[in-house]
Amino acid sequence: MTRTAILDAAIHCFIELGYANTTTALIANQAGVSRGAMMHHFPSRMSVMKAVIMYLHELRLKEYQELMADIDTPEAQLTHKDIRNSVEMAWNYVNMPSFIAYQELLAASRTDPELKAVMEPVEKDFEKQFLQMVKSVFPHWQRLPALEPAHDLVQFLMKGMALSHMSSRRNARAQKVIDYLALILMEIYDESSLADEATTSKAK
């Protein structure tokens, strides 16, 4: 419990103070633990960072799976409403504390070689696992060649909007983008499905 409290406190500090300003003393204070307890679990600042990165890695996958659960039902036809709901959930996902904290770490890793060395393999593994999870939560898409580019389209767009945190009327503008993106994804899905059906028919 103490270890989890420290990791959650570190995430809070990243969001409120930024990576550069987050010290082990501040994390311990936020977690409500003594410096001795902090040092027992994490003897150095980088040991905390490594643990937080792995904690966020697992947490972000779990949160995505929970957000997307039951949106795409294999037995039912995929509708525009389903797709828009998935895009809305993707927007919610990039506004969660776990995502914001991880982006803070990613930004810091650009100029911090030690942090980059830790994050780079984790990020590559996350992308691989994330795509596999997308296939599992969206069964209608999993066989389609358009799945990966459609996934990239959603993720790049959502990340860009999430990072535009100082934009005026941010939420209202985001909803309009979500509407347009859902229409585009519906078209991509329909075209890719027809192409897949034609390929399957020829193979038979």
Describe the structure in your own words.
One of its GO terms (molecular function) is transcription cis-regulatory region binding. This is TetR/AcrR family transcriptional regulator. InterPro entries: Homeodomain-like_sf (IPR009057), HTH-type_TetR-like_transc_reg (IPR050109), HTH_TetR (IPR001647). The chain has two domains: 43 residues, Orthogonal Bundle (Arc Repressor Mutant, subunit A); 148 residues, Tetracycline Repressor, domain 2 (Orthogonal Bundle). It is an all-alpha fold and 204 residues long. The longest helix is centred in the C-terminal third of the chain and has 34 residues.
- The CATH architecture of the largest domain is Orthogonal Bundle
If you average the pLDDT, what whole number results?
92
Structural class, from secondary structure content?
mainly alpha
DSSP helix count?
9
Q: What is the C-level CATH assignment of the largest domain?
A: Mainly Alpha
The low-confidence parts are none
CATH topology of the largest domain: Tetracycline Repressor, domain 2
How many discrete domains? 2
Taken in chain order, the helices and strands follow as: HHHHHHHHH
Q: Biggest β-sheet, characterized?
A: none
Query: Helical amount among residues, as a percent range?
Result: over 70%
Alpha carbon gyration radius: 20 Å
Q: For the terminal residues, how far apart are their CA atoms? A: 57 Å
Q: Which percent range describes the beta-strand content?
A: under 5%
Number of E-type strands? 0
Which outline best applies? Answer: elongated
